Amino acid sequence: MSLKLGVNIDHVATLREARYRGHATGEPDPVAAARACEASGAHGITAHLREDRRHIQDRDIWRLREAVQTRLNFEMANTPEIVDLALRLKPEIVCLVPERRQEVTTEGGLDVIGAEAAISETRHRLNDAGIEVSLFVAPGPTQLDAAARTGSQFVELHTGAFAEAWPDPARREEELRRLTEGARQAHALGLRVNAGHGLNYENLTAILAVPHLVELNIGHSIVSRAVFAGLPEAVREMLKLMADYPGGTTRS
Ligand code: PXP
User: Fold this and answer.
1) Residue 141 half-sphere exposure, CB side, CA atoms within 13 Å?
2) 196 C-alpha to center of ligand 1: Å?
């Protein structure tokens, strides 16, 4: 099974909000971006409706639901308002992420251990509505054990520490080892494994050493490259790099 690409289009909305915050319309349109990504081979579209609505707006998420033909991966915090919205929106999958107002983007993984009961309840409600659930977690054994106990279908391994460690070969290897062990453990626990955060055209080839990956969620670097190359080309280039992924779900 080939490795899938979910394109996170939040930063298209970030650019729009930089000029058109508070307006009913504006450019660039994240929904048009989603269509372009899908037309170029992306397997899914990811968008995060933050509590502070700093990039994606409510109208975007509803228009995305109409427009997305592949899979809509709705990133969200586990809060009552957003869970209610997700139950009405019915994305194919929800990825639960932590949210802090001060951060520029999602920085740490979820504390699944600390919020296990609340996450399990939300997982039940979303699954009952036909929505799959993924948890964005750093690759640590106790958090992954807790993720499995919630009954979630997926984990998304947080690759941020790996991306940060990239310039230092020793730290990079250590983070890759943690991701590899995390992927093996999650797979053994019956979880399907996605990964994302901070992946780019340079560090992508190294992440292909991690086994059991189903999908990568990549945003910032694709939107950045699109400034020069255009979004269709940026997506195609990333897919080309990902085509070298050797791992099927049977690798150990
Ligand atoms: N996955 C999750 C859960 C995220 O929160 C983000 C960032 O919003 C990404 C993937 C994509 O990260 P990046 O924009 O650095 O590619």
Assistant:
1) 2
2) 6
Tell the burial category of 18 from Cβ atoms under 10 Å away from its Cβ (0-12, 13-18, 19+): exposed
**Tokens standing for 131?**
């929505």
Q: 139 in ligand 1 pocket by Cβ < 6 Å?
A: no
Q: Which domains does the chain have, with CATH numbers?
A: 4-242 (3.20.20.70)
User: CB of 109 closer than 6 A to ligand 1?
Assistant: no
Q: Cα 246 vs. chain centroid, distance in angstroms?
A: 21
Query: For residues 32 and 39, what is the distance between their CA atoms, to the nearest angstrom?
Result: 11
Decide: 219 and 211 in contact? Cβ < 8 Å: no
Average pLDDT of 237-252? 77
Give the model's pLDDT for residue 106: 55
219 lines ligand 1 (CB under 6 A): yes
Quote the CA–CA distance of 62 and 47 in Å, as a whole number: 11
Between CA 64 and CA 61 the distance in angstroms is: 5
Average pLDDT, the chain: 94
Which contiguous run of DSSP H or E holds residue 95?
strand 93-96
